[in-house]
Amino acid sequence: MTHNNTSTDVNAMTQKVLNALDDLKARDVTNVDLKDKADFADRMIVASGTSNRHVKALAQEVCDQIKASFNEKPLGIEGIDSGEWVLVDYGHIIIHVMLPATRDFYELERLWTARPEQSSQN
After folding, report:
1. Burial of 5 (0-12, 13-18, 19+ CB in 10 A)
2. Over the stretch 71-98, which tens digit does the pLDDT of each residue have?
């Protein structure tokens, strides 16, 4: 299986991920463009679930919809057993689904949305 990295594929997959999260009522969904900020992915999507069960269901729905629409399996899934923080890695798109307290603690979006001039000054 090959992972295409064209912007059309990334945009289409991103929209499918966002739709899957919306279908199961994910909260506070954030879509972060990493294209010129990181070399490991083009997009990072972060969402919150209301419970461990909801977090797991959201991550599973993303995987199911990407498989159905693009016939792609994730390169890796971490945290699905506990459901506190599930990471789904498609190579060009990384999805983090977390409990709100975990998300507040790690503040992933803030790491990737800080303006470069703020972080480069000493």
Report:
1. exposed
2. 999 999 999 999 999 999 999 999 999 9
